[in-house]
Amino acid sequence: METSDFYGTEKVSRILLKIAPPVMLAQLIQALYNIVDSFFVGKYSETGLTALSIIYPVQLLMIALGVGTGVGINTDMAYYLGIGKKKKAEEVAGTGTPLGLILWIIFAAVCYVTLPAYAGMSTDSPEVIRDVVAYGRIVCLFSIGLFTEGIWSKILQAEGDMRTPMIAQIAGAVVNIILDPLLIFGMLGMPEMGISGAAVATVSGQIVAALIVMKKAWYRSPRRSCYPGHIKRIYQLGIPNIIMQSAYTLYILGLNLILAGFSDQAVTALGLYYKWQTFFFIPLGALQTCIVPVISYNYAAKDIKRCRLVLKDSLIMGECLMFLGTLCFEFLPGQMLAVFSGDSEVIAIGTNGFHYIGISFIFMVTSLIFPVFFQAIGYAVKSSVLTIVRTVLFFVPLGYIFSRFGLQYFWLTFPVTELLTSVIGVGCLLARKLGYLASPIVGECGYSWNWYPIAHGWVEIELDGKTFLFDPQIENYNLRAGISNETHSAWQVTYESAPARYLKH
Fold first, then answer.
1. 449 phi and psi, to 5 degrees?
2. How far lies 232's CA from each of 129, 147, 227, 315, 395, in Å?
3. Which of 129, 184, 269, 471 could form a disulfide with 197 if both were Cys (CB 3.0 to 4.6 A apart)?
């Protein structure tokens, strides 16, 4: 089935059920990188396990830059494919590889220099600091596979190819799983590298995955003159995702610093939650990935009703799937923690925390899906605001406030944050709907058109030698004056010349 038939006419639930499982499997495999590292490192040393918790925000930042750039490319490609401009889509894809390489070089250089200071912020233990620097420098310096694979996989997903990224992730994970025990413990003649061995295994798997997707996702670089426009648009669309992921880095770092005031074991317990979170959030993460090209495609085709249907179905599916995670966190916390750690204090702290965190999963579906929806339809500001509110304005301040009453109350941060963010997300959605309530108006020229008044973001558009003021964030913009048509692709919407009252004075 062609993409136009699949995204535009197929039943939404069937689309999600068809494209989500391969993405879920790929994300499951991706989650195994951290889970396997944590399992073997935990068997090697408890200080190494704490080090992985501390370095985790840095890894999230790498993923934010690589995958966020890929999401921008994915969304832009889906839009151009939606309006039948395949050549433009290929130009966008060709921009991806140079961007990935530049991001890798800059990130590797900055991390190599700053990692010792970063480690010293999170712990006073010399052993833990040593392990953070050893592991972190390897995964940062050799992160070329992470940056390029993240971009190339998104290119293939925009074209409807979910299979190749899945195969790449499986192959990368297999390499990581095989190398982890060999390099950490020095098995089969390999050197005993400890936590450094886990880092080498991780980057080896990432590079293997990148090589697999490279063959199909490599597009010729476009003309140099095309780069400014494409890069601007890629990051207009990808910034919300980058901000979303980067904000995770900031709030996890903030929570680590709060918990460091109690003990290294508290930091470790939080880190183990995020290990399990990557596993239980796979269905939700897959939905986030899958709905972006579907919504973007239909939004470009001006099928707003279908965009809303995708949102509704993804929320229902997300709630059903995340309920299973809630059950595990409520009834099996001790067993889940014991997989990685034998420290009784870590297990006791984590068990109490997991009970509170499990409750937050139900609210987390809406708090994470809404920003992705707004991102897909070009509402970058709303998407970014929701993310920042959740991670910066709620998580860290609430974590600090609750921690003043004791460690056991700190964990209330999670359900309270997700509930408040969900309420704000629903408010943003309802506010958009209210803004569309307007009746057709007859203009001074005698032509009829639909005017949807929203008091923000007006832009100038020149048509037929005249300048008009339009609001680019309005879906179904249908200004009809019978003069001429003009497609303003940067806003994913077709503008038509308006009567004289909208002329700029």
1. -155, 165
2. 39, 19, 8, 31, 31
3. 184
Residues 395 and 454 in one domain: no
What does pTM read for this prediction?
0.63
- Helix or strand or coil: residue 267? helix
Give phi and psi for 68, each to the nearest 5.
-60, -40
Q: Are residues 348 and 411 in the same domain?
A: yes
22 C-beta neighbours (distance < 10 Å), count? 20
Same domain flag for 325 and 453: no
CA distance 299 to 310: 11
Q: How many domains does the chain have?
A: 2
Q: Each residue of 401-445: pLDDT tens digit?
A: 999 999 999 999 999 999 999 999 888 877 655 433 332 222 333
Same structural domain for residues 335 and 392?
Answer: yes
Q: Which domain holds residue 326?
A: 16-435
- Angle at CA of residue 343, ends 337 and 344, nearest 5°: 85
Q: What is the dihedral of CA 166, 168, 171, 172, to 10 degrees?
A: -110
Q: Which of 389, 406, 435 is where one domain is finished?
A: 435
